[in-house]
Amino acid sequence: MRPYESTLATTATLIRERRLSPVELVDSVLERIERIEPHLEAYVMVAAEQARPAAREAEREISQGEYRGPLHGVPVGLKDLIDVAGMPTTASSRVRTDHRATADSTVAARLRSAGAVLVGKTHTHEFAYGLTTPQTGNAWDRSRVGGGSSGGSAVAVAAGEATFSLGTDTGGSIRVPSALNGVVGLKPTYGLVPRHGITPLSWSLDHVGPITRTVEDAALVLNALTGHDPRDPASLDTLPVDHRPETDPDLSGVRVGVPSHYYFEHVDPEVAAAVHHAIAGMEELGARLVEVEIPMTRYVQATQWGLMVPEATTYHERTLRTVPELYQEDVRILLEAGELMSAGDHLRAQRARTLMRDAWNRLLEEVDMVASPTVPMTAVPATQESVAWPDGTTESVSDAYVRLSAPANITGLPALSVPVGHDTAGMPIGMQLIGRPLDERTLLRAGHAYERARPARALAPVG
Q: Could you say which of 93, 173, 202, 417 is catalytic?
């Protein structure tokens, strides 16, 4: 196995035991990027000139007994909304052509402290305002969407262009591309990981979290990211938690809620079958399945849009007036639509958010988590704009991709997407697990148990 193919957990062990050099690992990843990046376009920019010296410094520190932990010397890609001192933060937009960050974001600083090596900034749908990331091809089939808005981050991990990455998630933007590219995506509890230094889309809904190849890897990254930061008003002041799951794939006593409606409606039959099979696999590991009714589903879309649209427009108010021509058309139209929404619309959405959060918290007194598809269909061709369901209804691709992930953003609940197979076209399928506030450990335990009971997954067959 070549170094770029290894999981974070495996790589960390090899580096700690001095059986793999950070220089060898980073060179392997950079060579992989050079070879396949023209096909995928996962990166806005590749930081090879900074990454190689950082790898040499990590190797020197480790040789002198200054090992910092499992991220030390490991290559990471950061979604290009995340500030890194001295580097551009373009948000994949012409609006940000001349922008350069003057300081690290909180998460970038924490990864730097942990010894991670930044290999580049990954593409996002412009300003994270979309679910397809059109400039980036899917790692399994470049003619299909990579998913968004953290498409570059997910594709990079799936293709071996980074050992792990960070994305942001406002309506599903970590989980959607993770599911479509066959990797693990974790949206933590709202406020658990500080967002200071990250370009916002919607303050009420934005999260930041890891995209990795395994659930264990996600836990290792999450451990490095958590902790209060007063510069983010939503940042939670919580006690430190070791999120690493147990090695034993036993789910005895875990109650898994299986939705009776909403999450399996307007879902491709192959996706539904794969997720039901995965849920049955969790039952075989000891979980108890409980049928549940999802609350307030008719209000999900209105609440999501009522929060996100006016907040995004407020952030972009100045540039929308001065340089509207620099925005892509789809994003500009959404930003202009936000100017038509009233304060009353936003307040009603905030009230609905509170009611929905309370209703989900009551549901999660009955079960430990809810299991569902992450997205209703696998990655569609890049030119496809809508999907037709058997009952005659039609839905835009973006609306379809956000429909099953948005409730966890509105409620702020932690949500994990885990690969559970492929459709007949060979495209990945993801299962979503939604848990209680600050109970990431239980989600990670369940996801880790499931993936340990299944054969190991390979990288996407690209290049």
A: 173
